[in-house]
Amino acid sequence: MVKIKPFKGIRPPKGIAREVASRPYDVLNSAEAQAEAGEKSLLHIIKPEIDFSPIADEHSQQVYDKAVENFKKWKERGWLVQDKEDRYYIYAQTMEGRTQYGLVACCHFQDYLEGKIKKHELTRKDKEEDRMIHVRIQNANIEPVFFSYPHSDEIDKIVLGIVESKPAEYDFVTEDGFGHHFWTIDDKSVIERITNIFEKIPALYVADGHHRTAAAALVGEEKKKANPNHTGDEEYCYFLSVLFPDNQLKIIDYNRVVKDLNGLTAEELLAKLKEDFIVEAKGTEIYKPSALHNFSMYIGGTWYSLTAKEGTYNDDDPIGVLDVTILSNLVLDKLLGIKDLRTDKRIDFVGGIRGLGELKRRVDSGEMKVAFALYPVSMKQLIDIADTGNIMPPKTTWFEPKLRSGLVIHSLE
Known about the structure:
single chain, alpha+beta, 9-stranded mixed β-sheet, 13 helices, 31% helix, globular
């Protein structure tokens, strides 16, 4: 059973929420952040290297100092203000006519360390440490992590009741066309009921933000060890999360482009693919995978459908059933000689939000030789893998919309 709590959020006044809110730190580089950041943007706090000319090393001490300075300045200027009472919040996102409703809450670091908050990806120590530095220097979780939970009809009813009974605190559309809507929950009886319902939910699942989750938990563990009077209820035991019911989330495709054919000609590659796949030429019009175990490939100006033959995969294995596993084993490794997706410089990954036209563009430009599009992973597959203690191959899931940072911050004090 998981433990969550309300908190006194630090957040922008209603009139400037859109100006403060920003894309997450890891979806844009420093130059993009500098071009995108307005005067009040949270990017000055989460990517403070943009305040230097030329842009500074994001891991330098002067940049960390600037992060602390800017967070303090935003609070002094009234661009970020702390609520006086503990609250839960609702953060809803609308994309292409579909809205998902998340509960903003604080989760306990011990639940992550004990495996009640389940992951499906490996984390890297260097990235964990980078995120830990930001939590330590600010003594706050500036950006939330994105979790899912087994949906609860009662939570759905509570959320719907609030959404239908009061206007949103924030309600705006960003330049990508996604809607962001935010409500506060300040009724103490409702807050207590939400907390009690989650005590009966067996697990949470990390959807997006594995490194931020690990970093927050490790900082909590550090502070526990440094406090001889630790009780487990201190504010530093908790970290900022947005919890979405699993039946509202949609994972989109995460595709691959490869720089060369490992010494093969296009004709030789097509011939070898026919050993494990049913290969069908689809012409010049973009072809999108139609079902599990069906792939699209773009090479030499032509799209192809690749359907894995029976016996080349194992539907009873939570990892073996994944299309990323099939593609990695039968194509990337076997034919193209790509052994390690994490380190091989010959392969790159393209989030499905960019569309399959981006795959075509990168091959037509000559930058890449071949592109592969995959059918998206399902939430059921993700949960099965997390529940069995398995780890997905790299770059398997892509969630959209991304959470906007800066709508609410959690202080560890």
